[in-house]
Amino acid sequence: MRREETRRMTITAVFAAILIMQTFLPNIGYVRIIPTLPAITTIPMTIAIYGTLMGTKAGLGFGLFWGITRLIVAYTQPGDMVSLMLFQNPVISVVPSVLAGFFPGLITKAMGKTNYAKLGCIFSGAVTSLTNTIMVILLTSIFFMHDPASLVHYLGNYSSSTPLLLILITALGANGVIEAIFTALVVPVIVTPLNLVLKRA
Q1: What 3-state DSSP class applies to 161?
Q2: What is the mean pLDDT of each run of 10 residues along the chain (201 residues)?
Q3: How far apart are the first and last CA of the chain?
Q4: Cα separations (Å) of 155 from 48, 83, 121, 171?
Q5: Taking a C-beta distance cutoff of 8 angstroms, is the pair 100, 128 a contact?
Q6: Which one, 28, 35, 61, 152, has least CB within 10 Å?
């Protein structure tokens, strides 16, 4: 029992260190392509791998850790006005991150011991990334519904009659699709050998 706890703590510490590097070192966790828009983030990949290996409860905690670091970045070194306006809101920072951390373990529990384990890893990666993107868009549309102009100004040239939700999907959806494809492809490549190593440990 103690050996298992030590192993889990060690794995968590390694992943926490990786997430901190991704968060605070430029263009590792947040890759900025268009300066005025939020960066493409590779952190859902780390969240998906950790949640797949460690399960739902650990994934929830790790997702919370991501949300807190995202909130800190929004206040200390925001890369653009949209990120500043969105992620200084604790709900927008934390809730999508926590949910993103929950689903990998849930999917792995359902598919991990079947013949579709590798497909489960792909699905886990895609769902983790899309959960984050979709929840950020939905929560932003709720919090800014009474004052959309303050945000839309930074998202591009849109008609004042265009619904905020549609603008957010258009402006942020491309990032979300790229992140989901990247995460879905990378997660099984990393999780498969890691699982083998952990089983031997």
Answers
A1: coil
A2: 84 95 88 74 94 94 96 86 88 96 91 77 94 95 88 76 86 87 94 83 63
A3: 14
A4: 28, 11, 33, 6
A5: yes
A6: 35
